[in-house]
Specification:
191 residues, alpha+beta, 4-stranded antiparallel sheet, 4 helices
């Protein structure tokens, strides 16, 4: 179980750009429109319905029906895995928000074990350190919030159990100010 959690955490960090920031800066942008959908691919089982509303986008992840608000102007990036429900990128600043299905709820672990997994064996890269920031609620579900800092990149990871699955929501930025601006979008997630 610990190996599965470590694999999921490392995969999530790689997707958000902690391991390679080139992915965050070079997604495949979609044409801007009032409503758009990503093209289904062999590995992609999720579709996005995006509606522009004032200074934000309302994104619905199908078939799950999860909804999240995103900043205006962000674009979907090509998911690298069928378990990636959402991979949105701010092309102007390189910020990333990602939602990933880790697996069954039996993969949920206590914060100390999660931190041990992240911080051991160089899982998060040289000069980076993970810390536990505490609990909060996302759509009535308890979420645990972690930070990974160092190396000029700031990542917040929210781990939440919903139904029979563990999901991780990750935000990747390079400034504390950008992180502060993006937290309300993460917390807008509804299941």
């Amino acid at each position: 179980m610990k190996k599965s959690l470590a694999t999921a955490a490392i995969f999530l960090l790689a997707l958000t750009g902690c391991a390679n920031t080139d992915d965050a800066k070079d997604p495949e942008p979609k044409p801007e429109a009032a409503t758009e959908q990503t093209e289904p691919e062999e590995t992609q089982v999720h579709k996005l319905e995006i509606t522009e509303v004032a200074d934000k986008q309302e994104v619905t992840i199908l078939p799950e029906g999860f909804k999240i608000n995103m900043p205006a102007g962000w674009v979907p990036a090509k998911p690298k895995n069928a378990k990636t429900l959402l991979h949105m990128v701010d092309l102007q600043n390189g910020n990333v928000i990602l939602i990933h299905e880790v697996g069954g709820s039996d993969l949920a672990v206590d914060p100390d074990e999660y931190l041990d997994t992240l911080n051991s064996n160089g899982n998060i890269g040289a000069g980076r350190q993970a810390s536990y920031l505490g609990k909060l609620e996302i759509d009535g579900e308890e979420a645990r919030k972690y930070a990974v800092t160092g190396g000029g990149v700031i990542t917040h990871i929210y781990s939440v159990v919903h139904g029979a699955y563990v999901y991780e929501i990750a935000v990747n930025t390079v400034t504390d100010e950008a992180m502060s601006e993006l937290v309300p979008y993460v917390e807008s997630l509804t299941f």
